[in-house]
Amino acid sequence: MSELRKDPLTNRWVIISEDRAKRPMNYVEEERIEELYCPFDYGNENSTPNELLSFRSPDSKANESGWWVRVVPNKFSALKENIILDKSPYGIYDRVSGFGYHEVIIETPEHNTNVSHFSLKQMEEVFWAYLKRFNSLKEDKRIKYIQIFKNYGKKAGASLVHPHSQLIATSIVPVNLIDEIEGAKKYFNFKNRCVFCDIVKYEEEVNERIIFKSENFIVFEPYASRFPYETWIMPRFHSHDFGELEKNEDIVKELAEVSKNFYSRFFKVLNNPPYNMLIHTAPFGEDCSKEYHWHIEIIPRITNIAGFEWGTGFYINSVSPEKAADELKKEEPFL
Amino acid sequence: MSELRKDPLTNRWVIISEDRAKRPMNYVEEERIEELYCPFDYGNENSTPNELLSFRSPDSKANESGWWVRVVPNKFSALKENIILDKSPYGIYDRVSGFGYHEVIIETPEHNTNVSHFSLKQMEEVFWAYLKRFNSLKEDKRIKYIQIFKNYGKKAGASLVHPHSQLIATSIVPVNLIDEIEGAKKYFNFKNRCVFCDIVKYEEEVNERIIFKSENFIVFEPYASRFPYETWIMPRFHSHDFGELEKNEDIVKELAEVSKNFYSRFFKVLNNPPYNMLIHTAPFGEDCSKEYHWHIEIIPRITNIAGFEWGTGFYINSVSPEKAADELKKEEPFL
Where is the active site (chains A, B) (predicted)? Predict the structure, then answer.
């Protein structure tokens, strides 16, 4: 029996419908990897633009080997930092010049690995790179939002296999954030509480969708999951700003442990799935510190998104979040 | 040089960035088709649920061969019509029972063809099937929205190759429609004009993104196209309700001609692309007859949607709509 569930933040509904998984299928898809020259390997540092940040051994030089995490501008950047931020009309429409930052975080020198095999230390260093770049770009007052994200696997939009994530900093606030914040503000006006804090408390109370929790984080499948095995990592403490984490080394370390714990279950249960990772955090320039609550969304890309979902924003999910949480909970993490 | 463009309806921005197309790529994807027993072929009518509507020769019987368009309930339906529409709380969340209709429109008895090869008559009959089912389901007052859509090709979410489209009728209004209507109402309050009518007039005036037009329709690439070759078919006359078309046979015929003209260009330029087709029309039960304007969106699925787009609803498009319109305009349709 299927059921409709509403996301508590936006007007987004999903259909949880397990019957849909039984459909016959004419299509067989295969994927192979072609090994090209990799611009992210040791020795190839000069095939990327000059590095913006690296964690490297003290006897090594910038833009040479010896690093363990390296951040560079995206060579095929969607936005450029050296142009003027210009807003203008175009007939009845609005346009803005392509000002912004687009960076690549090379997560490890190792070409053939994935985040579930990272050491705890390596995972922690990746979060430090995120935080350093996030807080540095935030200083540019033209920037209104910073999205940190990762595409893993072709289906998730990756073009290169070498482990990396990306950061885009823009002069506009993207629509999904506007919607989330509007939803969070409506909830706050009605209840005088943060909706994300309420989700944490309610999920802990019913304990049907939590995979595990630590002192400061819960890892759970959201009630209105759009996709099979969609997972959120959410701080149990209230904070609207991911960048604030820089002030607390212990919590960064804990987040690395929690991530490693989750990814090692996730890669085993779903057998090396393509996925997107997204850090949702408050935009700058508008106060939503009481209402918004940063969190990480992990979206497996194991099903194709069809026309109905595109047309409506109304998702059909054939695996209930309760079942997904159960499977991920049972798996032993490797830490 | 990239540029940010805002959709005039929602808060959705896109980045038009042609440089992105030049990225190196580690992944090679291949797709093959396995020929299974096809429930939509002549002679297999009893492997679908009983038909709801068919256009067939007068000497043939229901649920036997002799039809040219056939509509049946989806065997793997996401929603069921024979359950009570029940809205209830679940802790802090909202849920609704999985009431609704999910139907399949089998567009032709021919297994191996696609819409670009349909005769004009066949295309027209498909629109008649849409209209008959749309207006029939609209009578059920529990239904608030009807989405007609098509998934063509695996990447667009199709599971079967036999030409078909689908219809989902739901008790809730999906979030994208709510957003579009909110945007259209804001525009109307400000300008006292329909934003879609303004788009038609402005696009005709500048003539940079129109592929072609007929007496009653324009076929164009929207200014803030999210995807390469995204195309909208829009009535040049104001009408919020797709179902109203049933009253005017000539316009249905014209829409079939326009569609065939477009798809034959589209299939040649993009070489049989996977795509989604979506008919956007006003929901029921809330008056938006002045502000909303039905239209058809065609979304090619030739690029993967990556994490950034998912996380933000902020799309990066590597083909400008002006360039896409130019290419589609030059191609000769086969009519």
Answer: 164
Write down how long chain B is. Answer: 335
Q: What residues have CB less than 8 Å from A88, skipping those under 6 apart?
A: A94, A95, A96
Helix/strand number for chain B, H first, E second:
6, 16
- What domains appear along chain B, each with residue ranges and CATH number? 9-330 (3.30.428.10)
User: How large is the angle between the packed helices B195-206 and B175-191, nearest 10 degrees?
Assistant: 80
| Terminal-to-terminal C-alpha distance of chain A | 38
Of B92, B97, B176, the CB nearest to A3: B97
Give residue B128's identity as a one-letter amino acid code: W
Give the orientation angle of helix A175-191 with respect to helix B175-191, to 10 degrees.
90
List, by residue number, the catalytic residues of A. Answer: 164
d(CA B246, CA B237): 15
Calculate the alpha carbon distances from A272 to A116, A192, A305, B18, B327 in Å: 9, 42, 19, 31, 39
CB contact under 8 A, A3 and B224: no
Query: How many Cβ atoms from other residues are within 10 Å of residue B11's Cβ?
Result: 20
Dig out the tokens for B245 from the structure: 């078309």
Residue A158: what are its φ and ψ, rounded to 5°? -75, 145
- Using an 8 Å Cβ cutoff, are A67 and A55 in contact? yes
Residues B224-263 pLDDT 10s: 999 999 999 999 999 999 999 999 999 999 999 999 999 9
At a CB cut-off of 8 Å and minimum separation 6, what does A226 contact?
A12, A14, A299, A309, A315, A317
Out of A26, A32, A166, closest to residue B159 by CB? A26
Question: Could you tell me how many CB contacts below 8 A there are between chain A and chain B?
Answer: 312
| ipTM for the assembly | 0.89
